[in-house]
């Protein structure tokens, strides 16, 4: 038996209310505003639930001297990396960043989600919400809704690869000669590009340039699995039925990657058409992923300690208009998230400061 703080209770109840509203809106017969409403309320539900978990476990959802609470990405980062409040797996974080990215695009611009992808997002949200509610608060979600209430779709996803094959068939038709429907194709590819960023450990939105280049590669006949290798590394796992039906976005283990030398002519997942698409994070943007976890100065010390800049998959200095830029890839975020929980950051920081002050021999 444990006592739940009043703030936790209110956050949790509001989170449940937002999720139930997302389910209700998913099942509405009218499509007008439906996608946007489902994504907005599901996203809101998780931000409140993660804040309830953080407070429940003794963490902080406000930074010193700040009035507003932390945002969605900071909540995900805390619940992924901070030992005291950790409750998410890497796959959970990918699913949440994808949901948040889709919500952001739907709320502030637009995207096109085929019904199967919206169902994947909604049923996946119900599954993860139920997991967290049971794991942290020992409450099954079914206590808060009747047996008849669950997301229902006439086109549920069968397999992630098959589902995306269908989407890319539509995209290629829109890109066909003389169709003049590139803007529609971009709306279809945007949610997939957001999932790609999330799979690479980034919460940043794909740029218009990235979307145009991806469409160009697809128009040229390149397979979507090489254009979006992070998405190709994901799969859908399902189990149960009815209200106990579970749908999770997880990583494929041991996905085969064929590497060839530059110039062989094959289109590859490992070839980078534009290096700044892959190395797309300056230090400030990288540090923003760890706000509330470690200061920027200490993050520099950790980067030095683990030799991150020696890893070409994580860091590269790139000349842009003749000016060198030190840039990190989304893989740097993933490596730091794995490393930080096992490090004594304060000791590393003190050693780093001492080494910077030491006179040269």
Percent of residues in helices comes to: 40-55%
User: What percent of residues are in strands?
Assistant: 5-15%
- The whole-number mean of residue pLDDT values reads 83
Number of helices: 15
Backbone CA Rg: 22 Å
Distance between the termini: 62 Å
Biggest sheet, strands in spatial order? 1-2
Task: Give the structural class.
Answer: mainly alpha
Describe, in plain words, how this protein is organized in 3D:
The chain has two domains: 6-147 and 157-251, no CATH class; 275-357, no CATH class. The protein has 15 helices and four strands. It has helices spanning 6-26, 34-56, 72-81, 90-108, 115-137, 160-174, 182-199, 208-219, 224-227, 229-232, 275-278, 283-288, 296-306, 330-339, 345-357; strands spanning 234-239, 246-251, 315-320, 323-328. It has a two-stranded antiparallel sheet. A two-stranded antiparallel sheet has the order 3-4. The model is unreliable at 254-273 (pLDDT under 50).
Task: Note the main attributes of this structure.
4 strands; 361 residues; 53% helix; single chain; 15 helices; 2 domains; two-stranded antiparallel sheet
Short description:
This protein is mainly α. The protein has helices at residues 6-26, 34-56, 72-81, 90-108, 115-137, 160-174, 182-199, 208-219, 224-227, 229-232, 275-278, 283-288, 296-306, 330-339, 345-357, and strands at 234-239, 246-251, 315-320, 323-328. It has two domains: 6-147 and 157-251, no CATH class; 275-357, no CATH class.
